[in-house]
Amino acid sequence: MNPEESQTPEAIDEWLEQIEVQPSIDEVSETLSTDLELETEASNQDVDFNSAIINATSLALENSVYTQAAERLTHLQQRSLDLDAEIAQLETTYKTLQSQVSVTQTALSQVVQESLSQLEQRKQALQISVEQLERRQERIRNEMRTTFAGTSQDIAIRVQGFKDYLTGSLQDLASSAEQMQLVQAVKEREKPAPREAKPVKEQSEMPQLGQQQFQDTTKKIRRLLDQYRNQPDYYGPPWQLRRTFEPIHAEKISNWLFTLGGRGALRTMGSRLQNILIASSAISILHQLYGDRVRTLILANTPERLGEWRRGLQDCLGIARPDFGPDRGVVLFEAPTALAQKAERLVKANQMPFIIIDDSEEQISLALLQFPLWLAFAPDPKTIKDRDFDDDF
Q1: How does pLDDT run across 45-70, given as a tens digit for each residue?
Q2: Which of 21, 141, 203, 318 is the most buried (most CB within 10 A)?
Q3: pTM of the model
Q4: 244-247-250-255 Cα dihedral, nearest 10 degrees
Q5: Which of 327, 296, 325 is nearest to 182 (CA)?
């Protein structure tokens, strides 16, 4: 404003009004200080807020670490519980397996003991069998060495049995044919009555071989058995035993003569040669007692076995082929019916039929049991079972 105008009263009043309206310096300074404080508080509040944010962030981080650690600890605790449960289960399983193993060991030990006892029994039985077989082998070797001069007659008998039987049969047929031409002449000589009256008297002389009767005959038989056993004569006359006679053979033939009375069966010796030896001793004794009246009838079911009997009797008794035939000392038969018919004719002719039955015959015909002299070799039950088993297959 112009100085002139400021000097007017109106101007001065306006100026004073403006001064009154404007705040004083103290008020302005107070206002400024207040504003400064507010700004300072605001700035302090910003700083506190930032620090609070930082603290909250750090707390959140710490909380997350604690949470992870807690979760890890919980997981480890659960794992520990699982491991404890698994260990307890394994301990239970181990105890169960241990008990089962102990039971199994006990059972195995029992089985082993039983098996060992059975094997021991079988071993003892086999040792006994081996000893028996060795003794039998030694006896057979001695018999073969002394009887057959170092050669195996058993093999020769089996190989040549059938051939010998056929040859003997042909000779028997030839002899029968020759005798058929002389039948009438023989009948003419046998017509006189004295020969018809003798059978009744001579039949009373049929052998009575019980031990309680005919002590003289018994003594003579025992003397012959002792001679065969202790003083064998390998070059004696025909119809006398020429082979080694052991105590077992003497025991069997004594049982047949004195206990069975010349009528009965003996257990087979397991070898046809041994059976032939026993039968030969019986034939020899009967020939010593009754001479040519004794007629031996052999029954076997095959030509091969009959051939073995022929060869064995020839070797043991020193007889020859002419001693075999329908009207000679020894007759061979394959059927019991023909043998029984022949024996009946011999009895009627005042002769003594001595029937020998091979161990191959499992059954004895009743027609043969009526005669006073018969010797059957009973087959071994084991052999019969094995034979039946083979037949089944």
Answers
A1: 666 677 778 877 878 887 888 888 88
A2: 318
A3: 0.48
A4: -160
A5: 327
